[in-house]
Q: What sequence folds into this?
């Protein structure tokens, strides 16, 4: 059992209330949490050698989460990153995962979901060991989709909304709603960011470039 007191979670969020409640959550389970209200403050104080992970808000004044992620890469800070956001559109999610994010969680988040994600990030090696198994599971779920469900899945993870998908496929929006819920259930995706992460891991959104994602 790892010594939680030696592990650190950097929490970067400009919302002071969210910051305080998140720090309290981590400390309640024995994790040390260090809060920052700006990306630059985090970058200035971050210890790249620490047994740590980073919980990073996407939308912040000044330097947003994606810019912080890019700055981390430029500085050689190789800490696992978990993004949180109340505005998780597909292009942002794709860009975050392509930048190496471990997870992307929508606000308001489920506390246990967040804690599980942080524990996976802090364990590092076990996370890498389970990646192949997870990818195999995702591929098996993809294989279980019907042709129509696959027709819905691809534009969904490329960022098209239900009305646009309906127009592409020549079906009603109600039909898209129905199949979208089936896809989420079959893929065992709790959220759209989770589904996008699975699709990226399976190579379904390979043509989706960073340039397109940031447009």
A:
């Amino acid at each position: 059992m790892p010594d939680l007191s030696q592990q650190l979670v950097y929490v970067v969020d400009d919302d002071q209330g969210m910051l305080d409640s998140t720090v309290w959550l981590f400390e309640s389970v024995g994790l040390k949490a260090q809060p920052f209200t700006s990306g630059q403050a985090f970058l200035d104080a971050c210890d790249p050698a620490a047994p740590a992970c980073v919980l990073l808000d996407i939308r912040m004044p000044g330097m947003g989460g994606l810019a912080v992620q890019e700055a981390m890469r430029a500085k050689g800070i190789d800490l696992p990153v978990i993004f949180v956001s109340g505005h998780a559109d597909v292009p942002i999610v794709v860009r975050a995962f392509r930048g190496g994010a471990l997870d992307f969680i929508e606000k308001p988040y489920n506390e246990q979901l967040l804690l599980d994600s942080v524990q996976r990030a802090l364990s590092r090696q076990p996370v890498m060991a389970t990646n192949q198994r997870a990818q195999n599971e995702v591929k098996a779920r993809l294989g279980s989709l019907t042709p129509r469900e696959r027709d819905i899945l691809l534009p969904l993870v490329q960022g098209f909304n239900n009305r646009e998908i309906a127009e592409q496929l020549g079906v009603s929006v109600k039909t898209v709603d129905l199949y979208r819920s089936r896809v989420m259930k079959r893929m065992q995706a709790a959220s759209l960011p989770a589904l996008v992460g699975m699709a990226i891991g399976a190579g379904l959104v390979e043509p989706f470039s960073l340039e397109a994602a940031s447009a």
Observations:
- The first strand starts at residue 8 and ends at 12.
- The longest helix spans residues 125-143.
- The mean pLDDT is 85.
- Strands lie at 8-12, 32-36, 52-57, 81-85, 103-106.
